[in-house]
Amino acid sequence: MNVGYMTNAFGPLVGSGGGVTSIKDVRYETLCRDEEVFQKIQRQGFNGVEMFDGNLDQFASQPKELKEQLQGMGLSLYGVYAGANFIYEDAWRDELWRLQRTASIAAEAGAKHLVLGGGAVRASGEDQKDISRLAASLAEAESIVSQEGLIASYHPHLGSMIESPEQIDQLFSWSSISFCPDLAHIAAGGGDPLEIVKKYKDRIPYIHLKDWDGEGFVPLGQGRLDLHGIIDFLEEQSYTGDWLVEIDGYDGDPVEACKVSYEFLKNTALNKNAK
Questions:
Q1: Where is the Xylose isomerase-like TIM barrel domain (predicted)?
Q2: The Cα angle at residue 34 between residues 33 and 38, in degrees rounded to 5
Q3: CB 235 within 8 A of CB 241
Q4: How far apart are CA 182 and CA 194, in angstroms?
Q5: CA 222, 211, 36, 76 torsion: positive or negative?
Q6: Which helix H or strand E contains 35, and what residues bound it?
Q7: SS3 state of residue 272
Q8: Distance between CA 94 and CA 89 in Å, rounded?
Q9: pLDDT in tens, 231-252
Q10: What distances in angstroms separate CA 29 from CA 111, 154, 259, 268, one per listed residue?
Q11: Who has greater pLDDT, 231 or 273?
């Protein structure tokens, strides 16, 4: 079964300290021992991982060694997740520099995807031009990322400019960037994940599988989302993109969540069609 797992479930989420004073250094980071996490994910049956840009940056001087390390475990680097404000014009130059650097390291490490999240929420409320600014910045980021041979996609996320179905529609009326839907974030933002996947199926190269119980994110099959319906729909459409499980923000044991999620996927079209 060709499904990856996000490493961010295995430790607290922090931002890199240098980003407090230099926006070019802002990165997400999971506080964990990456190699140990890779091994835990591989033992459950997954064949790849996604990392935060801050975790990847620890391998900046030896990205090929990271690739070889993963390959030695039977894993690959599916993707890297990075965030940005996108809408502040002066800060954007430094953010773009950072994203280009991340894409370069990720490419050498064998990654296929760079997932982009964000769009700052202003204290004063949304400026009418923010959607167009976000779209323009995403176009620049996509151009730079594609030059490194990676696929750039946008990930709507709670706490960012793009949460609700209406906001997703508004952004995608301005932007042609690929779409990486996170099913639980879409549901928590008031959307129907299956309907949104159906609407944008032709621009989805990568999908984050996650369940939601109405209060928080939970292992696959333990929430209220119609994951079987979404997986079946995409398989019926001959979906050729990649699948990744992400169970961040879960209070339970991360290894158990990883195991439970893999067991859930064994009873879906993903496993049946892989045989």
A1: 38-267
A2: 125
A3: no
A4: 11
A5: positive
A6: helix 34-43
A7: helix
A8: 10
A9: 999 999 999 999 999 999 999 9
A10: 17, 19, 23, 31
A11: 231
Pick from 101, 118, 110, 120: which is nearest to 50 by CA?
A: 110
Region of residue 5 (phi > 0: left; psi between -120 and 50: alpha; otherwise: beta):
beta
pLDDT reading at 160 higher than 80: yes
- Residue whose structure tokens are 């990654």: 111
Nearest one of 37, 40, 41, 17 to 29, comparing CA atoms:
17
139, 137, 88, 118: which is closest to 28 by C-alpha? Answer: 118
In the predicted structure, residue 275 carries a pLDDT above the cut 60: no
Token code pair at residue 21: 């004073």
Question: Which of 112-147 are b and which e, b meaning 16 or more Cβ less than 10 Å from the residue's Cβ?
Answer: bbbbbbbbbeeeeeeeeebbebbbbbbebbbebbee
Domains and CATH numbers, the chain: 4-272 (3.20.20.150)
Percentages (nearest 5) of helix, strand, coil residues in the chain:
45, 20, 35
Q: Are 60 and 93 in contact (CB under 8 A)?
A: no
Instruction: Check residue 149 and give left, alpha or beta (phi > 0: left; psi -120 to 50: alpha).
Output: left
Tens of pLDDT, residue by residue over 167-207, are 999 999 999 999 999 999 999 999 999 999 999 999 999 99
E strands, 26-175, are 28-30, 48-52, 76-84, 113-118, 151-155
Among 151, 160, 137, CA closest to 28: 160
Q: Is the dihedral of CA 229, 235, 240, 245 positive or negative?
A: positive
The conformational region for residue 49 under phi > 0 = left, psi -120 to 50 = alpha, else beta, is beta
